[in-house]
Design a protein that fits this description.
mainly beta, ibrinogen binding protein from staphylococcus aureus fold, two-stranded antiparallel ribbon, 11 strands, 39% strand, globular
């Protein structure tokens, strides 16, 4: 399960299964509590409310109570609200056994992908339907890939030396 060190790929399988059980879901609001932590306020059927906390590079899980949000939301939270608020969660899936989750959100005639990277140097990335990056939480340039606006998002290669 989620610890201060993070989640394993196996932990994430259980978490994604739990989240999918709550579908259908709609994005109500997005909060950002610190530079690496975002909470998605989700509405479900029968007025059910869910708070999905995502700490990039570490973990993602439902929390029961929403902490006091900042008075002035950071720009990344505002951008996520602009694109995702009112959108329907179409799918939630894990990328293989890796610590990467993608949430597909349909809004109007468009599908957006919100990618959570829960490994070291992980990120939260908003992408267009074709996976062109709209905005990452953190801009990264790695030897094998770039996580910057305007570039196609590519999943990192799995590390064969780890099972997490």
């Amino acid at each position: 399960m989620a610890t201060s060190q993070g989640m394993s790929g196996v932990d994430l399988i259980a978490a994604v299964t739990e989240w999918k059980r709550e579908m259908p879901l709609w994005i109500d609001k997005v909060y950002q509590f610190n530079p690496r932590t975002v909470v998605l306020r989700l509405n479900g059927e029968d007025r059910a409310k869910h708070n999905l906390l995502v700490e990039s590079g570490k973990r993602a899980y439902f929390i029961s109570a929403l902490p006091e949000p900042p008075k002035m939301p950071p720009s990344f939270a505002m951008l996520l609200r602009k694109y995702l608020r009112g959108g329907r969660v179409l799918d939630i899936r894990q990328h293989g056994i890796q610590r990467i989750v993608t949430i597909d959100v349909g809004k109007r005639d468009t599908v957006y992908h919100l990618v959570f990277e829960l490994f070291d140097e992980g990120n939260i990335v908003l992408c267009e339907e074709d996976y062109t990056i709209i905005k990452p939480l953190l801009h990264h340039r790695f030897r094998e890939r770039e996580v910057v606006p305007g570039v196609e998002y590519t999943y990192p290669e799995p590390d064969p030396t780890t099972f997490s």
